[in-house]
Design goal:
The complex is a heterotrimer of chains A (254), B (297) and C (267). With 254 residues, chain A is of the alpha/beta class. Chain A is 35% helix and 25% strand. Chain A has 10 helices and 10 strands. Chain A has a 6-stranded mixed beta sheet, sandwiched between helices. In chain A, strands 2-1-4-5 form a 4-stranded antiparallel beta sheet, with helices on one face. In chain A, helix 7 links the parallel strand 7 and strand 8. In chain A, helix 3 packs across helix 4 and helix 6 packs parallel to helix 7. With 297 residues, chain B is mostly helical. Chain B folds into 2 domains: 44 residues; 245 residues, MetI-like fold (Orthogonal Bundle). Chain B contains 12 helices and 2 strands. Chain B starts with a helix and ends with a helix. By secondary structure, chain C is mainly alpha-helical. Helices cover 72% and strands 0% of the residues of chain C. The chains are: A alpha/beta (254), B mainly alpha (297), C mainly alpha (267). At the A-B interface, loops of A face helix 1 of B.
């Protein structure tokens, strides 16, 4: 299934890691300002696919990436691409939250400072804005200079989201961002994702089918490094065309 | 800060850092080459085999035979390892497999402290306790006379010095044996000791070899502590209670005095080169073994 | 087994006891606070302040110089180079091997470069040689903490648009306790090592006032005084050994303390 002007377009992507063919002939369009989920059994390549989007994958040795990933029509594996500014367009939320080793305030201010905002007043505004946007402001406003490592893990994950939003990305990549969280924190993150859909393009890797159903507009099902089926959420979960998808959705394979 | 300056900083640091990394790799080559360059005069005068196998050491007659020094080094190192290996092995097994958590927490830092003590302090300790004890109490049972400054004293002091090195590497090696393997053995009805012997030790053979080799190379290169207690007479020892003169002591004792005789300096540099080559090879081999163990776990 | 452990642990206590009991007998305030006076080496007055200060100069100089070289290398290997790249592995192996090279070899090599550049035995030559000795110690200790920092930390900074240089700064901040431990380890090793400074730093009774002057060091002060036939002088060697042991123990213990204490923000 294709879109007219997708935010990300993957063309004939093949990834080999240490001689293993991890992703096979991937072609997929990620629509603008929608939430697209990658589902599939563990080891199917969904996280690898996500990491090709901001080129975090090619920091490892023995990784060979062929094909194209076009973001806003520009191939991020092209020769003249500036990886640093390209990555800035994409926020990343990893499986476990990793606050930077500094205070809550500095965590949020880190990105803006890098990109040229240095005035204390402007930073104050930004910090309050993004902490409010992730529902953290009331919880942490009295200890902005406290260590980020002292927050609960759910708060840390929301802090990481706020930190990512503060560099004004266009795309947010979530790599099973709730897998380390308790149910209540998970719910908060999910609510945030639903709110963010208006402004950002979201790509979510998840192995929880119910989560994919609650959040996504589109779902891609991956199996053994291939995209088996891609379509609107209802179609994939309720009326899958492929036999493998049916079996996965019913829980026969996992 | 503008984007360009940030990228510039990134590239600049990458270049400088890379050059420093390459430079530090090059240090090894530089040390080897520098020592070789300095010792080449004597290698042109005599064959390496002759230098290594001759016992004639007469700098004023231009005769340099390293044999007794090499034997001296081998003697103290051999004694040290014979003492240190079994004790360290038993100690490491105890700490890794048997010791209660609290005792382990006291012992490990204590052994670390031992490794921090400077060689010269070991030397002073050797002079104060080991040397007189050997001279007065041990040697009289075996030989007519010994001053106590002898191969055995050097070996004991060295053994104490390599304990912490061997024990700490062994502890790391034992740590890589999977817990499941031990549990599997225990659940098959093996006793603790059988498990240790047949599972832990068997799995750790390469690591034990690596630790031993590292211990040997530490001992063979140790200078001051040994020099202070081993007597420094260039002869082939006939018993544990004879004086020996190891290679590092030869360098340390004579450097500076030898400038008047050109070949002398070259000879001393050759002994440094010999030490360097032996220790380089030993270290590289045992590190590669240890990397393999690390990757396995 | 327990016996073996007792022998090993006991040898440490025995060393400390011997040094302490012998050293205390002749340790006076004069030894710590004065430089050698005329006739010091035949038993007259004075102390070894020259050696204490000289050793501190050399250890501080070498550790600082060593950090300037080892930190960039560790950062390159862990952050700039690809993970487990050929260069990274070779660099690690190099430092592991250099770590095992005995100080007498560094001393001999240091002496050759000293002669090559026309330097005299001096504070500077001593610092350079001891730097060679401590670089592998520093690099290995810092590498260990930075390598163990989670990769997600770099993923996070890169995703925020940070460059490798900016990411390095975050990793350094994360590794501060480890770096302090490394500094202490290196300092302890530098201050206690004799074979490196034997030919390169010289020996003098005065405190050096410039890098070009020779300097006394504690280990050599012990070594030289112990080889004196005069008992009075030998006793001072024991006092000096006690001072050195005390310094090194304080350093080791604080290294232990810092490696346990995590930094405020560490994850």
């Amino acid at each position: 299934m294709t879109f007219e002007s997708p935010h990300i377009r993957v063309k004939d992507l093949n990834v080999h890691i240490g001689g293993n063919h991890i992703l096979k002939n991937i072609n997929i369009d990620i629509p603008d300002k929608k939430l697209t989920s990658f589902i599939g059994p563990s080891g199917c390549g969904k996280t690898t696919l996500l990491k090709t989007f901001n080129r975090l994958l090619d920091r490892n040795k023995d990784v060979q990436i062929d094909g194209q990933v076009l973001v806003d029509g520009e191939n991020i594996y092209g020769k003249d691409i500036e990886v640093t500014s390209m990555r800035q367009k994409m926020g990343l939320l990893s499986q476990r939250p990793f606050p930077l080793p500094m205070s809550i305030y500095d965590n949020i201010a880190y990105g803006p400072r890098l990109h040229g905002t240095t005035k204390k007043k402007e930073l104050d505004v930004l910090v309050e804005h993004y902490l409010t946007a992730t529902g953290l402001w009331d919880e942490v406003k009295d200890r902005l200079n406290g260590s980020a490592a002292r927050l609960s893990i759910g708060q840390q994950q929301r802090l990481c989201l706020a930190r990512g939003l503060a560099v004004e990305p266009e795309i947010i990549l979530g790599d099973e961002p709730t897998s380390a969280l308790d149910p209540i924190s998970t719910q908060k993150i999910e609510e945030l994702f639903l709110q963010l859909k208006d402004k950002y393009t979201l790509v979510l890797v998840t192995h929880i089918l119910r989560q994919a159903r609650r959040l996504s507009d589109y779902i891609a099902f991956l199996y053994m490094g291939e995209i088996i089926e891609f379509g609107p959420t209802e179609d994939i979960l309720l009326r899958p065309k492929e036999k493998l998808t049916q079996e996965y959705v019913k829980g026969y394979i996992s | 800060m503008s984007y360009k300056i940030r990228l510039l900083k990134d590239r600049l640091s990458a270049n400088i850092f890379l050059e420093l990394s390459l430079f530090s790799i090059l240090t090894v080559v530089l040390i080897g080459y520098g020592l070789y360059y300095k010792s080449s005069p004597i290698l042109q005068q005599d064959t390496l085999w002759h230098l290594l196998s001759s016992t004639e050491w007469k700098p004023f007659k231009n005769e340099f035979g390293f044999f007794s020094y090499i034997i001296g080094s081998l003697a103290v190192t051999g004694i040290a390892i014979i003492i240190a290996l079994p004790l360290s092995l038993l100690c490491a097994i105890y700490i890794a497999e048997y010791a209660p958590h609290r005792i382990r927490q006291i012992l490990v830092p204590l052994i670390d402290l031992l490794s921090g003590i400077p060689p010269v302090v070991y030397g002073v300790w050797g002079v104060l306790t080991i040397v007189p004890y050997i001279g007065d109490h041990i040697a009289p049972h075996f030989v007519d006379y010994s001053s106590g400054y002898c191969a055995l004293a050097g070996g004991i002091v060295l053994a104490v010095m390599v304990f912490p090195l061997i024990v700490s590497i062994l502890l790391e090696v034992f740590d890589t044996v999977p817990k499941e393997l031990k549990e599997a053995s225990l659940s098959l009805g093996a006793t603790e000791w059988e498990t240790t012997r047949k599972v832990v030790l068997k799995k750790s053979v390469p690591g034990i070899i690596a630790a031993t080799v590292l211990g040997i190379s530490r001992a063979i290169g140790e200078t001051l502590a040994v020099l202070m207690v081993c007597g420094n007479l260039p002869m082939i020892p006939h018993s544990l209670f004879d004086s020996v003169y190891p290679l590092p002591a030869l360098i340390a004792n004579n450097y500076g005095d030898m400038m008047s005789i050109p070949m002398y300096e070259s000879a001393l540099m050759l002994s440094a080169l010999i030490l360097f080559v032996i220790i380089f090879i030993f270290n590289a081999i045992s590190r590669l073994i240890l990397y393999r163990i690390e990757n396995r776990s | 087994m327990i016996l073996a452990t007792l022998i090993i642990a006991g040898s440490l206590l025995m060393i400390l006891y011997t040094i302490a009991s012998k050293g205390m007998q002749s340790l006076t305030w004069d030894i710590i606070s004065k430089v050698p006076e005329g006739g010091y080496y035949i038993g007259k007055g004075g102390g070894i302040l020259n050696a204490i200060i000289g050793s501190l100069y050399i250890s501080i100089g070498a550790t600082v110089l060593g950090l300037v070289i080892s930190i960039p290398v560790v950062l390159y290997v862990n952050i700039y180079a690809k993970r487990n790249s050929w260069l990274a592995n070779i660099t690690r192996l190099t430092f592991d091997v250099l770590f095992g090279i005995p100080s007498i070899v560094y001393g001999a090599f240091g002496f050759t470069i000293m002669v090559y550049f026309g330097l005299r035995a001096s504070l500077l030559a001593g610092i350079i040689t001891v730097t060679l000795l401590v670089i592998p110690i520093l690099a290995r200790a810092i590498d260990e903490v930075i390598r163990l920092a989670p990769t997600e930390l770099s993923d996070a900074t890169y995703a925020l648009g940070a460059t490798r240089w900016e990411t390095s700064l975050i990793f350094l901040r994360q590794a501060i306790p480890g770096i302090i431990t490394a500094i202490l380890l290196s300092f302890g090793r530098a201050i206690g090592d004799a074979a490196t400074v034997l030919f390169t730093a010289g020996y003098t009774d005065s405190i050096p006032t410039s890098l070009g002057q020779p300097t006394a060091t504690l280990p050599l002060a012990i070594f030289f005084q112990l080889s004196s036939p005069i008992e009075e002088v030998q006793n001072r060697a024991y006092a000096a050994a006690l001072i050195l042991t005390f310094i090194v123990l304080i350093i080791s213990l604080s290294a232990k303390y810092f490696s346990k204490k995590l930094s405020k923000h560490k994850i």
